[in-house]
Amino acid sequence: MIQDDAIPMLEPVRLPAHIKALVVDDDGFQQALVSDVLHSLQIDDVTVASSGASAVTLLNTASPPFNLLVLDLCMPGMDGFQFMDTVAKLGYMGALLIVSGQKAEVVRAASMVAQWRCFHFLGALSKPLIKQDLERVIAQAQAAR
């Protein structure tokens, strides 16, 4: 897990009772892993996108809207930073969790951007993803309801 001691959390993030998740990652293995963990937590409404551009299209057409984004930072075309910028301009109001293999300082910068963009920021996890870390982050946000 990325150390988040330099990233102050403004308030606990709460997930709604029904979670509609969008996993944005160009790696099929990571998509499957995150989806499987979410399903194991009784989050059955999970969609995957292999690029930032396809995720934006899904966000624009989803009804009801997604309320949880699980985002990789390093993707071809639109990277995670560009994706956050675009999604913020679209008015996305849900939760965001970063899952990335980038260096800690890059993830820390992305975490700050996520908070500046006023996302409901759940935190940042490093790759390779440890199932228990993702379970813990989601469970904490669900318990905060």
From TrEMBL:
The modification 4-aspartylphosphate is found at residue 72. GO terms for biological process: phosphorelay signal transduction system. Keywords: Phosphoprotein. Residues 20-142 form the Response regulatory domain. The keyword Phosphoprotein applies. The keyword Transport does not apply. It comes from the Bacteria. It holds the Pfam family Response_reg. This is Response regulator. It comes from Rhodoferax aquaticus.
